[in-house]
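User: hey, got a sec? need Thiol-disulfide isomerase or thioredoxin folded
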Amino acid sequence: MPGIMKNIAITCFVLVAVCVGLQAKRTVKAPYFMATSGSQLEIEKVTLGKDTTWVDAKIYTISGDDVRIDSTTVLQVAGKRYAYLGGDGFSEGLWTRVPASGELAVTLKFEPLPMDAESFDFMEMPDNDDKGWCIYGVRLDGKKPEIGIPERLLKQQLDYSLPLPEPELKNGKTVIRGQILGYNPGYGTTLNFNCTDWLFFDIFGQSIPIAEDGSFRYETNLMLPGDATLRVGKKRFELFLVPGGELVVTLNLPAIFWSETRLFKKKENGQLVWFEGTYAGLNTELAKYGSLMNVYSADNFYENICGVTPNQYKKYVTKIYEKYREDILRNKSLSDAAHTFLITKLEMSYFFAIKGYKGNISYAPMISGKKGVKRADMTVDENYYDEILKLDFIHSPNIRYGSYPDFVRVATGDFKGKFEPEPIWEDVLRAKPLGDALARVKPLSEEQLLTLDSIVEPEIKKALNIRNQKIVDLLAESAKKTGYTICQLDTAVTAENLIATITRSYRGKVVLIDMWNTWCGPCIRAMKSLQPVKEELKDVVYVYVADESSPEGKWKITIPDIHGIHYRITNKQSSAMGKLYEYPGIPTYFIVDREGNIAYKVTGFPGADVIKEELNKL
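Assistant: Yep! Here you go:
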């Protein structure tokens, strides 16, 4: 009897072991990855089984948001896709409401990955150029990926003793170049540059092209030393640039993405960026402490000011300012240049935050995603601004490092009489509208050129002339290109008649209408994905419709490389189109058949294969 019981026990043990082996042979907790499209979804565990691969993840977003995982989501290994089989943690409906914690734990099931797979890509909507959540290079060996940091950077010795350059006006070319370590073109990583320029501030910044090997180069004219920003995905790095300088930047791509996650933010605190060249030491300090020069960098800034009164807002912003100031003053490791620059920029940030209380409070609910916020009374007393009018930066030449024209505008407007005017103010006020026009890639008119001639300061005049000539040259170069046609549409054409008017000349042909704008990254990426379809289906008429939110100059420079028929409609027409055809954004596509009827409509790029299939139906 004991022998029989022993054999039964052994048999049961073997069966259990076999079952467990069949169901879960391999588990990786908190797997490292190479890049991601955002920080809202994080993979906490991957379990590889014989019949299923399980991905335990958390979704982080605003409480009350509705989320889902698209049914087209796949895991990809060496080019082969493994389909999504469903998920636990979601409601039975298509969308799931995120709880008050702002976190939603889910388990996603996929077709089984090969047991010997070393890594995979998590790809939501893989055939849509406007991708959803994507995490690339998820490691299944439990190891941290090695990206090969150059030896010269590991042994780098920087000079932190350089004083800040005098904030004098002197135009010169500035070059930013460098390398992204761990880069892969398939990750969709973007680089964006924005300079706090006196004259040409661009809210969207300039996209910096990245070569296949991860190298990049960008040059621009600067009128004086000052700050700029470089964005890698959603990560922002503060820079200090000087006319005539060259800054070499090396970016640690995986570490940058890890720094934005909950899983790795505290665990991985390695260096994200290295600088060489002009003011490399100061730029290294700004990469570490740059957030201290901006009160808006405080966690949940806009969420915390929703519905507050102006006095509550002022108290909150002042508390941030005082804390950041104390952090800077207490940090004895900072160089003199970094100390001075951080304090100056922090005071500027505080000044404009208090001055702009009304706009900040008003837009806070929209920015933070809070709904149903009741707006407080915006009335303030005459002493509301007393503290910011006494800030040191106002009386320092270092005020020129930042948004000096914004200060001049305030000093000659709402605060008129509070400051002693300077001779350069008149030139700044004349130049700023010209700079705004040029920032929209629009060459100066004859009247504006007369205003330019009236400016006394030679370096301001030179900066405007350099930018104007660059735009004139770009437009002339674009005009020489062929393969595109610009058409005019009467502003009186209504939304109901717009598509019929545009396509009337092409009866008997299939027409693809692409609603886009120059600032829409997904629109541009989708156009590149559709290029093979255009080359194959040459009988289709390709029509591109932008609106006035695309600056006319930028539009004219961009469209020569987008072969087809181009229209630029009014914002009113564009808004009416969105309401009539019920599409919330762009890109939106209409396919019009040979008789002029809309046969297909979709918002968001559905993939080149889908568009091709729909075109071939007609």
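Quick note: The first strand starts at residue 26 and ends at 29. Let me know if you need anything else on Thiol-disulfide isomerase or thioredoxin.
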